[in-house]
Amino acid sequence: MAPLRFGIVGCGGIAGLHARTFRDGLERDGTAQLIAGAETDPERREAFGTKWSLPMHDSLESLLARDDIDAVAITSPSGLHAAHAIQVVKSGRHALSEKPLDTSAERAAAAVAAAKEAGVVLGGIFQQRFNAGVQKVRRAVQAGAFGELVYVHCETPWYRAQSYYDSGAWRGTWDLDGGVLSNQGVHMVDRLLWLAGDWDEVLHSVCSLGKFRNIEAETLGVATVRLKNGAIATITGTTLAYDGLAQRVLICGTNGSAAFHGEELVTFKTREPFEEMKEATENASRTTDTDNKAADPLALSSNQHEANYRDFIAVVREGKESLIKPEEGVRVVALLNAIYAAAGAGPYTG
Fold first, then answer.
1. Staple partner for 95: which of 28, 88, 148, 228, CB 3.0–4.6 Å?
2. What are the residues whose beta carbons fall under 8 Å from the beta carbon of 28, sequence distance 6 or more?
């Protein structure tokens, strides 16, 4: 079978990880090929094209005019994800969006609807779902091994200097980025909801906007949320914790509990015996101490991104059910919007 041919739009920092995912994995076995890129900024466009030996375009429209593109990876600023996805799916191509699906739940939902109408696949990047420990906890929760969930928690105590926000005019803005919860903490929010269940209401929220950094959105956020199953969730994050600590997730139930330190499952206890931890596959590895995402936004392994891509490609090629449904991407953004609305922060009204 011929490789699925991808374009990529938005060629800033994270796009390099996507390109590496193709070159180090997907292209080696003929699963997929990165054909061309699109970037509006001339310097980034030239640098990306030179580094990865790709023909480059100055707009998504120009990229979509090609006849050798089957799908497009969307790595533009967060607030453009839905608009770019809609353009892609309306052209008849499949779309794979980096996290989050957008900064606005309304726009994210419109992208999902457009993909359904066009009859193509819209996928999302939540690569941490492919971690072996995360998958074990999900199996245990779904099997009832944790009993009734009572308390869940996620936190992102990271560090970003002002220079990080100054590196792009979109960073820290409400429309294109959001703050620590929407950007750095979004994987933790997704992990919490994927493991513990959907959210019901935001009970309380506090967001400190531009605290110690010159940005619109929050550098510190704390929220208390009730889930539909009755459990209480706490969600916290900051980009002011010098020089960055590991993210954590806690899942606590009446018959079992689990704790993650970064992506490593450090505690797993159930009242009744549950399956032993399966060895991580080559596409589902743990984060190591050298992957210092807490201080370096590009300190990422491509292993789980590769697993995420392979899942997406299997949906396109085989019609299999994805581990990441686009509606779940909308759910995450809707919760983030509701947290901001409860804090009286930003333009969101829930």
1. 88
2. none
Cα-based angle 278, 300, 245 (whole degrees, multiple of 5): 90
Could you tell me how many residues make up the chain? 350
Phi–psi pair at 109, nearest 5 degrees: -65, -35
Q: Which CATH class is domain 128-294+325-343?
A: alpha beta
Cα–Cα distance measured from residue 48 to residue 238, given in angstroms and rounded to the nearest whole number: 31
How far apart are the C-alpha atoms of 126 and 149, rounded to whole Å? 23
Which residues are within 8 A (CB) of 166 and not within 5 positions of it... i.e. 6 or more apart?
none
Q: Tell me the per-residue pLDDT of 55-107, one tens digit each, with 9 for 90 and over.
A: 999 999 999 999 999 999 999 999 999 999 999 999 999 999 999 999 999 99
pTM for the predicted model, two decimal places: 0.93
d(CA 53, CA 274): 49
Residue written as token pair 């009744």: 272
CATH superfamily of 4-127: NAD(P)-binding Rossmann-like Domain (3.40.50.720)
pLDDT tens digits, one per residue of 168-191 = 999 999 999 999 999 999 999 999
